[in-house]
Design brief:
The complex is a heterodimer.
Chain A lengths: L1 H38 L2 H22 L2 H35 L1 H35 L6 H30 L4 E4 L6 E4 L2 H5 L4 H29 L4 H36 L1 H8 L5 E3 L2 E8 L4 E7 L2 H7 L5 E3 L13 H30 L7 H10 L1 H18 L2 E3 L3 E2 L10 H32 L4 H22 L1
Antiparallel strand pairs in A: 1-2, 3-6, 4-5, 7-8
Chain B lengths: L2 E2 L2 E2 H28 L7 H11 L3 H18 L1 H10 L1 H20 L6 H31 L20 H25 L3 H31 L5 H5 L5 H18 L3 H23 L2 E3 L9 E2 H4 L3 H28 L12
Antiparallel strand pairs in B: 1-2, 3-4
Helix pairs in contact in B: 1-3, 1-6, 1-7, 1-11, 1-13, 3-4, 3-13, 5-6, 6-7, 7-8, 7-11, 8-10, 10-11
Classes of the chains: A mainly alpha, B mainly alpha.
Chain lengths: 483, 345
């Protein structure tokens, strides 16, 4: 009788421990999702604006047209804002692996750690170092040196994207490693550095991420300058900016279709369970459709939606009839459980991508006809489209990361085994609340300051006179000091 | 064990990480230190000058934290994971204050209202003080060791463990060291009233630092004798604490002679020497287990594979000189006294 009671008590305690553990895991995941999503608003904007700033400054150097100088100057201020918030939220990410994912950190330290170290030494230092000149050096260095600094910041930001995508890609398609140790002491060690860096998904995903960043930047430029045109302010300069941003947006919307496809092919080959979830494919071994949009009924394991019959088979095998492995073919604990969420995020991204292609091609057509700035409705669409690449960038990552579950390193380490044992659910709740408060505050500030800068706008011809007056004073000062 | 230039790879990497965090301490040290004085400056012009001294360089300074953290993650993943998960609350607070400080710097100048500027001034100053203090607090906890059990398990009270007498002592010691360091930086970069104030504040903070440094050393001798074992077995190491004292003395001497650039150099050297002292007190154990020595985290059992350490040393060899050269380039571009222009904070 006593033995039975003991057994029941032990079972209860185990159950509570398991519940607490689950709580801790979910909270750790929620915190990571919150911090990374907020962070991810900013680096893509910085990278995208970086591209446009380099273009504006190059055009200024080549044509000596003051308008390009004004554009570069204006967008640098916006860039400074996005960059600053990117840095502070990024530092949180770097250490969050240690605080909340200690087991994961020990497991992937060799690999993820070295990618992060490379990101720090080669990329961050480059960006941050030249940032000072970019922001404050307008009057202290020659236009050529300033252009070089802008390029340095842009290339640094591109390079840092490389390393973080390499690290994440290794989690998706691990290569170039061996596992040593067992249980809580198990870890992955590098066997081949280049195989780890150029794992099957890295290159496609790097390009996919870069293009998503360029779109984020281009559409912000389009949005702001379309707003100016509606308000009939900074008209000439805005027309120039819109044309440049439109070219960037068009090229990379189309390119993104290619890269997105390539990335999906990689998923099809190396992460079949994720592919099945992305498209809601349940049947074990049948030709599979590719959906445009739909709804996954997880309980009944069916999908309702608009689809291309056999489309997924075509993507995966080049043939509409070849079977694709569905979710039923995988053991319960080796496939994502949140199928509908993964499906929705993935398809929202695709629909946005297709819309952006349509929008940019239509706009280019109007441009060709000389009617680009005549259509007010187009300007309004540009204004609101700024959200679309942002949403696409976020949900694309949600699909990628949630689709990888239950793994944090695909096939090797489970998310449920990877979080920090030392951190209790209450502590995570505390930090989630703190971060939420700070980040909400930060976001409000971001919007407020962004709006102020936009309302102030770029300098235009009337400011040129003041500018040259200041320059004359500076030159006089320098001459006086020399004497 | 494989060696390079007579040192094994974990030791080399220990030195690299130590170097990176020393660099970080020197740079964000003057940053936090300068910020800690902010509310002592009453005039708008002084505050603006102080902010603009830090403005162009704070982001680049924090890159050293990013690189140091990355090096720690990559080189000693076990130590990285235990340090940040065991010291969860203080470290999360450190991150929150870091965010607040960066934002305060960036946003203070954006609006003309006095209440706006005052609010951000308070945020900037308080964050700077707490950041400097918490670095010292965490260092103190690392020196004392943590309740690490079998399989990296945690056997402590997460909420209060990290607040203990020694950690509070090291917290204040670090705070005053950074405030002295920051004061010299401000003296170098400004003219006028703020400069005069900083000269007086420098003496105060320097004095406090010296007193607390001595107190910390005495505490270690009496209560944490393990930490002195490296110095005792390697007599040459005794020179480091002596150099710390000489360096501080030199800073005071150079200050009196108005040689502020040299004083700043020696202040930086003092910070580096303090890091060196901490490194020697720890080596080769990174985190002592207060439960049982067999659970100690050493540079050997915390390290990544030798292959990874070698790869990363190549990164450092290539990247290090690059980073150093463009850091110097940027500091040179902004050398001289702070000027407020249309691009300023």
């Amino acid at each position: 009788m006593v033995l039975k009671l003991n057994l029941i008590i032990v079972k209860f305690v185990d159950y509570f421990k398991a519940l607490k553990k689950l709580e801790t895991e979910i909270l750790a995941r929620i915190q990571f999702a919150l911090t990374i999503s907020f962070h991810y608003i900013y680096p893509p904007l910085s990278i995208g604006l970086g591209l446009l700033m380099v273009i504006f400054e190059t055009l200024y150097l080549k044509t000596k047209n003051q308008d390009y100088h004004h554009l570069a100057h204006f967008w640098t201020k916006i860039f400074a804002l996005t960059f600053g918030i990117g840095v502070v939220t990024g530092i949180v990410m770097e250490f969050e692996f240690g605080t909340n994912w200690a087991v994961y950190s020990r497991y992937v330290g060799d690999i993820f750690g070295s990618a992060l170290a490379a990101e720090g030494i080669f990329a961050f230092a480059l960006e941050s170092g030249f940032l000072g000149i970019l922001l404050f050096g307008w009057n202290r260095v020659s236009p050529k040196v300033h252009w070089f600094a802008t390029l340095g910041v842009f290339l640094g930001s591109m390079f840092s994207a490389v390393w973080i995508v390499v690290a994440n890609s290794w989690q998706q398609t691990p290569r170039g490693y061996k596992i040593v140790g067992e249980g809580l002491h198990a870890r992955a060690e590098i066997v081949d550095f280049w195989a780890m860096v150029f794992n099957p998904s890295s290159v496609d995903r790097i390009l996919h991420v870069w293009f998503g960043c360029f779109l984020a930047g281009a559409f912000l430029v389009l949005s702001v300058h379309a707003y100016y045109l509606i308000k009939k302010r900074h008209v000439e300069i805005s027309k120039m900016a819109i044309k440049i941003a439109l070219v960037v947006a068009t090229i990379f919307s189309l390119a993104q279709l290619v890269m997105g496809s390539r990335s999906a092919e990689v998923v099809a080959e190396y992460q079949p369970a994720k592919l099945a979830a992305l498209e809601g494919i349940y049947e074990e071994n049948e030709p599979a459709d590719m959906y445009l949009m739909g709804w996954v009924d997880e309980k009944n394991e069916k999908v309702y939606g608009i689809s291309v019959p056999g489309g997924l088979s075509f993507l995966t095998h080049g043939d509409f009839k070849t079977p694709v492995k569905g979710l039923k073919a995988f053991p319960e604990d080796e496939k994502p459980s949140q199928v509908n969420a993964v499906f929705q995020f993935y398809h929202v991204m695709i629909v946005i991508g297709l819309f952006l292609i349509a929008l940019t091609l239509y706009s280019c057509f109007l441009w060709w006809k000389g009617k680009l700035f005549d259509k007010k409705h187009l300007l309004y669409i540009f204004i609101f489209s700024v959200f679309l690449p942002q949403i696409a960038n976020q949900v694309g990552w949600f699909a990628a990361e949630m689709g990888r579950q239950p793994w944090v390193v695909y096939g090797l380490l489970r998310t449920s085994d990877a979080f920090s044992e030392a951190v209790t659910a209450n502590q995570i709740l505390f930090s989630i609340i703190l971060f939420s408060i700070v980040y909400i505050f930060l976001f409000i500030l971001f919007i407020y300051i962004l709006n102020k800068k936009i309302q102030k706008g770029p300098e235009d011809e009337s400011d040129d006179l003041d500018m040259s007056h200041e320059h004359r004073e500076e030159i006089a000062e320098v001459l006086m000091r020399k004497n | 064990m494989e060696a390079f230039l007579g040192l094994d790879y974990p030791t080399i990497w220990f030195l690299v990480v130590g170097g990176l965090f020393s660099g970080y301490g020197i740079l964000d040290g003057f940053d936090f230190g300068a910020g800690a004085w902010h509310l002592f400056l009453k005039k708008e012009e002084s505050r603006r000058l102080a902010l603009n001294a830090v403005g162009p360089v704070w982001d680049g300074n924090e890159v050293w934290l990013v690189i140091g953290g990355g090096a720690l993650f990559a080189g000693f993943p076990v130590f990285y994971s235990i340090l940040f998960s065991f010291l969860y609350i203080p470290f999360i607070l450190f991150l929150i204050f870091l965010i607040f400080r960066g934002i305060a710097i960036e946003f203070r100048g954006k609006e003309p209202m006095q209440w706006w500027k005052n609010a951000w001034d308070i945020a900037y100053c308080v964050s700077s003080i707490l950041l400097a203090f918490s670095l010292g607090l965490m260092a103190g906890n690392v020196l004392q060791g943590l309740p690490i059990g079998k399989d990296y398990s945690y056997h402590g009270d997460a909420l209060f463990d990290f607040i203990n007498p020694f950690a509070l002592l090291t917290g204040f010691t670090t705070l005053f060291l950074f405030m002295a360091h920051g004061a010299i930086f401000l003296i170098l970069k400004t003219k006028g009233l703020i400069r005069m104030k900083m000269k007086a504040y420098l003496k105060i903070s320097m004095g406090l630092f010296i007193v607390l440094f001595v107190a910390t050393s005495i505490y270690i001798f009496i209560y944490l004798p393990d930490l002195t074992s490296f110095i005792r077995t390697n007599e040459w190491a005794l020179i480091v604490p002596i150099l710390v004292i000489l360096s501080i003395a030199n800073v005071t001497r150079l200050n009196a002679r108005k040689k502020f650039f040299k004083a700043f150099i020696f202040s930086a050297i003092t910070v580096a020497l303090m890091m060196g002292l901490v490194a020697m007190e720890l080596y080769p154990v990174l985190l002592r287990s207060t439960i049982h020595p067999s659970y100690d985290i050493t540079i050997y059992n915390a390290a990544a594979s030798i292959k990874t350490l070698k790869i990363m040393l190549i990164f450092v060899a290539i990247g290090g000189p690059l980073v150093l050269s463009y850091t110097i380039f940027v500091y040179k571009t902004f050398s001289g006294k702070v000027k407020i222009d249309e691009h300023s904070y």
